[in-house]
Amino acid sequence: MESQSILERLGILADAAKYDASCASSGTSSRNSLGSKGIGSTEGMGICHAYAPDGRCISLLKILLTNHCVFDCHYCINRKSSNVRRARFTPQEVADLTLSFYRRNYIEGLFLSSGIVKSSNRTMEQLIEAARILREEHDFRGYIHLKTIPEADPELVHQAGLYADRVSINVELPTDSGLTRLAPDKNARQIEDAMGRTKDDIAEASDAKRKFRHAPRFAPAGQSTQMIVGADAATDADIVGKASRLYGSFGLRRVYYSAFSPIPDASAVLPLKRPPLIREHRLYQSDWLMRFYGYKPAEVMEAAGADGMLPLDIDPKLAWALKFRDRFPLDVNRAAREDLLRVPGLGVGAVDRILAARRHRTLRLDDVARLTQSIAKVRPFLCTVDWRPTTLTDRADLRALLAPKQEQLELFAA
Ligand code: SF4
């Protein structure tokens, strides 16, 4: 390993980190070094942002400290028994790389995770040290997301939150039985305990910050987690249920879903095929429905089939509306905001534009068309002064009419 150049190690450890979806730089406090000493900013001026369609942020330096690992999670390319090339950075090297990428304006911050070397505590100490060097020695004010290790000492996990904008602990699998089978060294209880302590630390720090201006920050962008989709038999209903419980119990900012991808030398207990990527996309859409559209988890699951799986050909909001056609059409001039949010094709922005516009005049179908992106999609579910879809919502082929064409699905399947 000594003979590997920094560039070679960067290639290995950036590639090894790509399986982790749980990075996004949204939601942290605004901070920059303008007019003060120090370096960095979380505001992103002059920094190139790139987001994948599911919201993954790709403008962070996203690396592992090391891909050596003493654990043997079956789904992970870095597991102990995997035959991959290994590499390791020192905390100082991670800090130097972050600063040099930052100065070149390639990134807006750092996403740092790691395989477990020697012990969970030892690994956690190294992750913290990289963040400490950046924050204390270089006054780095850019974004830092640290992956924490639930098996590590709680005091170490706490220290990570003092340096990081966001911390995350991956629940990995949607069910405890899946975790036991595929990640035998991990423990669902330990993971949730660590999330619970982090939630308390975040709440305490934000309380203190309200009272004392100089109170230490603790993960101001909150905590997030990731679930792997399709590596075990968990259904979409299991996944939606788990996500909703995590949001409710631990105040998570985000749950990320990552479609399992088969890895070289895969363990025999894993499926041979990856799940369709569109499944991951549908889960993100259902997550969106719960967080921004007022759907309860049980309602999202009403959109699923008897097998607990969301349809792949249409989005969960449309699937729900087609199942509950008796709730439509809605009068666009009178319906409540929470009902309008249930109309397929109406996003939060469009609903707010409709509410603002109807304060001044009675809306016609043309008005709605101007305020929305797809009048064809919303038309069967709405009525206006000049439009009433008398039989449209009853048509047996409505689903086929509204489902995106196959070519469009390919966009997501790429
Ligand atoms: S702990 Fe498991 S998931 Fe994490 S790097 Fe090691 S083998 Fe991979």
Automatic annotation (TrEMBL):
InterPro entries registered for this protein in UniProt: Aldolase_TIM, DNA_rSAM_put, Elp3/MiaA/NifB-like_rSAM, Endo/Exo/Phosphatase_dom_1, rSAM, rSAM_sf, RuvA_2-like
Keyword vocabulary terms for this entry: Iron, Iron-sulfur, Metal-binding, S-adenosyl-L-methionine
Cofactor: [4Fe-4S] cluster
Pfam families with a match to the protein in the record: Radical_SAM
Stored SUPFAM superfamilies: Radical SAM enzymes, RuvA domain 2-like
GO molecular function: catalytic activity; iron-sulfur cluster binding; metal ion binding
Protein name: Putative DNA modification/repair radical SAM protein
UniProt source species: Pelagerythrobacter rhizovicinus
